[in-house]
Amino acid sequence: MPAQLLDGVALSKKIRTEIAARGAIVTAKGVRPGLAVIVVGENPASQVYVRNKVKACEDVGFHSVLERYSAELGEEELLARIATLNADPSIHGILVQLPLPEHIAAERVLEAIAPQKDVDGFHVANAGALMVGQPEFKPCTPYGCMKLLESIDYPIRGARAVIVGASNIVGKPMAMLLLQAGATVTICNSKTRDLAHHTKDADILVVATGKHKMIAGDMVKTGSVVIDVGINRLPDGKLCGDVDFDAAKYIAGWITPVPGGVGPMTITMLLMNTLEAAEKAAK
Ligand code: GUN
After folding, report:
1. What pLDDT score does 61 carry?
2. How far apart are CA 249 and CA 59, in angstroms?
3. Residue of minimum CA distance from atom 1 in ligand 1
């Protein structure tokens, strides 16, 4: 029997209804949740992502600001802009879309965002809080993956979880969240020997490599949960993930589609983090 789909669109809709309701309550107290999104340069995928983030804010009644800068923007100018947003009481979340142009040191920029407005959860203070099990803002993509697992009541405690990809944005925070939920976690990277040996043992397989067909059907454990974070554009314009979906769907128990799996959940959890930042500001 083919795997059940982990439908990120349907789950997002449900969670966004709750976010809109909570947003209305905090707005009635005089604090309308506000998100500022900054994008530097013309990366076409980034342009789509930031537009989707701002549109999602509008849909749930949040205030949003999209600031687009040319790739020539200087690092100091960007830092000055962040300082202004840090001090702006109408803004509760600040997101600088990655990647940044090479002449800008991304880590300096991420550290400049006030930790209480760091709705991406990328500031070292928030990464550290997550590491010690006291997260303030969970990075949106791993947070969304956890919500997908919760939606099927998957027994994470004691499960073997394998994450392919060790980025600061997805792989590492995903490992922390799964570890704290009681999974036995392995993080694989581009140098891992015999990747299939690890993935075939995974009750929960999370793949975030940005490489189309990185995971073949025979690398997946029968009945497992496969969460595909990859978004790759094929030469014919179609979007696909890092997992060979058409093969893996006959082996996995649950699988996320691309598009329509993790992608919408990432934006939903960004809204959740922005809402929570506003709720804290209203206290
Ligand atoms: N680039 C790819 N994913 C993300 C994300 O979740 N946040 C930001 N700021 N940039 C990204």
Report:
1. 98
2. 32
3. 98
Asked whether the predicted pLDDT for residue 259 surpasses 90, the reply is yes
Task: Name the average pLDDT for the chain.
Answer: 98
Neighbours of 186 (CB within 10 A): 16
- State whether residue 200 is helix, strand or coil: coil
Structure token pair of residue 52 = 């989707």
Nearest to 90 by CA among 26, 36, 144: 36
Alpha-carbon gap, residue 218 to 136, rounded angstroms: 38
Is the N-terminal amide bond of 259 cis, ω within 30° of 0?
yes
Among protein residues, the one whose CA lies closest to atom 3 of ligand 1:
98
Predicted pLDDT of residue 124? 98
- 166 is known to lie in a ligand binding site: yes
pLDDT of residue 64: 98
Please, what are the domains in the chain?
31-114 (3.40.50.10860), 140-263 (3.40.50.720)
Other C-beta atoms closer than 10 Å to the C-beta of 191 total: 7
Nearest-CA residue for atom 11 of ligand 1: 98
Show the ligand 1 pocket: residues with CB < 6 angstroms. Answer: 95-98, 120, 140-141, 169, 266
As a whole-number percent, the residues of the chain with pLDDT over 70 amount to 100
Which among 117, 118, 120, 242 is annotated as catalytic?
Answer: 120
pLDDT tens, residue by residue, 13-69: 999 999 999 999 999 999 999 999 999 999 999 999 999 999 999 999 999 999 999
Residue 83 has a CB neighbour count (10 Å cut-off) of 13
Residue type, 240: C
Residues 159-172 as b/e (b if ≥16 CB within 10 A, e otherwise) read: bbbbbbbbbbbbbb
**What single letter denotes the amino acid at residue 216?**
A
167 is in an annotated binding site: yes
Give the integer Cα–Cα distance in Å for 282 and 230: 36
